[in-house]
Write a structure and sequence with these properties.
With about 400 residues, this protein is α/β, with parallel strands linked by helices. The chain has 14 helices and 17 strands. The chain has a seven-stranded mixed β-sheet, with helices on both faces. Strands 1-2-3-15 form a four-stranded mixed β-sheet. It starts with a helix and ends with a helix.
Amino acid sequence: MDIDKVRELDHRFLFQNYGRQDLCFERGEKEFLYDLSGRRYIDLVAGIAVNSLGHSHPDIVSTICRQAGRLMHVSNLYLVREQALAAEALAGVAPAPLEKALFCNSGAEANEGALKLAVKATGRGRVVSTKNSFHGRTSVTLSATGQPKYQSGFEPLLPKVFDFIDYNSPEQLKSAVTRNTAAVILEPIQGEGGVVPASEEFIRAARDLCDERGALLIVDEVQTGMGRTGKWFGFQHYGVVPDIVTLAKALGNGMPIGALLSTPEIAASFKPGSHGTTFGGNPLAAAVARTVIEVMRRDKLVERSAELGSRWSQELRSLAVHGGAIKDVRGRGLMIGMEMGDEAKRFQEAALESGILVNVCGGRVVRMVPPLIVSEPSVRELNSTLKRFLEA
């Protein structure tokens, strides 16, 4: 089937709620994708920070085939061995006392569960979130998202329980967190908001204020978690430990899965029947999540993300002197944003012509969240393409 036929079927039978690029891929290997005509692309999007082990990783393929031939789904009415093993693996990389896991199907579901858990555990009714944030597309997580463009048209469904403050404003945080605040929810790096890292002062203020006023700190690690920033979790750069952490994306390397981590005391707030999911933590997804963690540990991909990401960011900053199109290079590890203003979309198009996939977020920032196994030659190819673009 050629791309014209795919396009025809897409327009005929699918909701047109995505602004899709006119590309269709047939297969992938490592950091490469191949379209229907066989052309190869360097994938620096990785399914939006999902495919951290790259495409068709042999260990992931082996796990899926083995587990699918054994058991894919039984429901949470019963004990699930693979789920218990995945939870043990997560506890092995998370700092204490984050040792309890609840699995679901996506990042939005993880954040939804985290917010329910915070309200249940505290008995309070308000949540502090940040402007320019992104936490999901369900009614509650959309309401927690500090970007009105995503909420437009859905206002009747959105609960009015969120108090928004400017990201990186400890002063506003102090005013917003009260004795009625159940939780503060924030991202260590705002991904959809333009790859904006939190300041150490802001994160530490959030932790201190939550402790002082009895609120819980929820850190949304859906995009930053699982080695993306050069540590297992983005919050580890700040020397704090949240009360609840949410994960998805890279946890399954493409297999839909989400999770929230919390302490035994807070997790105990969810009694049987208080929260649940049909598919969450099914044997297939859980087996993959465990394999992802094992491979990342074995191949030291978290450390590689820190080392390669730091070096790559420095190289990009050195290229910024050409023409002034690059206003800023920011991020951590292999979560890199180049602020280019009106040039961002033009560079995305130039990169595509050169066979490189990058993403633009916030309308002005080129975001690169490649597989953590991305090769040095692929990094050099992006740098060369960028240099040619800037010099032109």
